Amino acid sequence: MKRTTPFVLVLSIVALALGLGLNYLLKPTAKKPPQIEGLLWPQSKTLTDIALIDNQETPFTVDNLKGKWSLLFFGYTHCPDVCPTTLTVLKGVKQRLAEQAQETANTQYVFISVDRERDTPEVLTNYVKYFDPEFIGVTGSQAQIEKLTRQLGVVYMRIADPNNKDSYLVDHSASIMLIDPLGRMIALFSAPHAVETIAKRYLTMRQFLNQQTEYR
Amino acid sequence: MIKKIVFIIFLSVLLIPMSGFTEETVDIPVKQEETSAIVKVSDAWIAEAPPTATVLAGYMQLENTSDQEIIISGVQSQDFKAVEIHETVLKADKVSMVAHETLSIPAGETVSLQPGGLHFMLMGAKRPLKAGDTTEIILEFQDSATQSVKIEVKKRAVEQDHQH
User: What is the mean pLDDT of the segment spanning A122-131?
Assistant: First the structure.
């Protein structure tokens, strides 16, 4: 009895070490998030309950995001500097990604207006089509827009224009968000935006994410 | 020899449009007595906006070659209801537009009005302005002097450089 005690002890330690070692070795490496700036995976938030309208006045819901990769940007058409600058960058991204059409298929570009009062579907159509005929403009009631912005953690705020009482400005998020084909917010591109940075990160993200089981 | 002359002529022709761009200060007679160039204006352009947009942004470099601070206290244009001095400010992912009452150009320095930063916000376009059109803005200085600046409307360039 006394003789077996040290033996059992040693055996237990060996077994434990072996178990831990094997656990470390066999851990699926794919579960380790890669170092791609802006990638949120695996902390991806599934979007639910979206009831907006696009610039053609047709409903824009979670179904419009599913099966596609969507680059979302929030803004408003009365914004003369940062919104057109960002949409011009997105046009550049679209042109750049055309070089890798196969790897970047099913990419859509969505501009979501946070200024329902002035941005009617018609105004939005003229606005987004100016940048690219395939860009989609989306709007909706304030409650519906807030439902989406809250899920995405996007802030926006209506501010009175100190110099012009008939006008107002809207502070808004400057990030471009990437929604994956499962309708999850998967990445965030922070401002200031540059075509090549977004294109490269997006391509790297898609290459990585395509290897994950949930996309197969 | 002939080749050389042809080359020089070619170069001169190339330089003609450039001379117009580097010095955009155009002095036209305005009601005020002071009309000479107070600030050196270069790279002045208004970004063409989508057809329905009534708000446009104007960009330029403002160089103060004097040894005294220059303060712009207002901007006007016949083609717009109002022009304001604005700045796009990015803070913790939130982008805001800040209106400035005045714009200071310190002695010997250049202030850049460029996309994503300071700009003239041109509101209430009275006529549609397309790429290639020109308009005029009047800079009003704190000492009540004015300066007229001719600005061309241009399309925003899509960044093509792959070497970032």
Answer: 94
- What is the amino acid identity at position B153? V
pTM of the predicted model as reported, rounded to 2 decimal places? 0.79
Pick the CATH number of B40-155 from 3.40.50.720, 3.10.580.10, 3.40.30.10, 2.60.40.1890: 2.60.40.1890
**B10 SS3 class:** helix
- Mutation site, B45, B89, B94, B95, interface A, largest A CB count within 10 A: B95
Question: Average pLDDT for residues A59-65, to the nearest whole number?
Answer: 96
Task: For residue range B106-133, list pLDDT tens digits in order.
Answer: 999 999 999 999 999 999 999 999 999 9
The answer to whether the beta carbons of residues A119 and A55 sit under 8 Å apart is no
CB contact under 8 A, B159 and A196: yes
Single out the residue of B158, B79, B46, B109 nearest to residue A195, CA to CA: B158
Q: Given an 8 Å threshold on Cβ–Cβ distance, is B156 in contact with A159?
A: no
Among chain A residues, the shortest Cα distance to B86 is held by A81
Peptide bond into A192 cis (omega under 30): yes
- CATH 3.30.470.20 matches A45-215: no
Burial bucket for residue A2 (CB in 10 Å: 0-12, 13-18, 19+) = exposed
Identify the band that residue A215 occupies on the pLDDT scale cut at 50, 70 and 90.
confident
pLDDT at B160: 63
Indicate if the pLDDT at residue A169 is higher than 90: no
A127 closest CB neighbour out of B52, B95, B159: B52
Mean pLDDT by 10 residues, chain B (164 residues): 62 51 48 66 96 90 97 97 94 89 97 96 93 97 95 90 47
* Option in A77, A89, A123 nearest B159 (CB): A89
Chain-centroid distance, C-alpha A146: 17
Selection from A116, A196, A174 nearest residue B88 by Cα: A174
Question: Would the CB atoms of A126 and B122 count as touching at under 8 Å?
Answer: no
* Residues in A touching B96 (Cβ below 8 Å): 159, 169, 171
Q: At a CB cut-off of 8 Å and minimum separation 6, what does A134 contact?
A: A94, A108, A109
Which are the contacts of B45, defined by CB distance < 8 A and separation ≥ 6?
B58, B59, B60, B151, B152, B153, B154
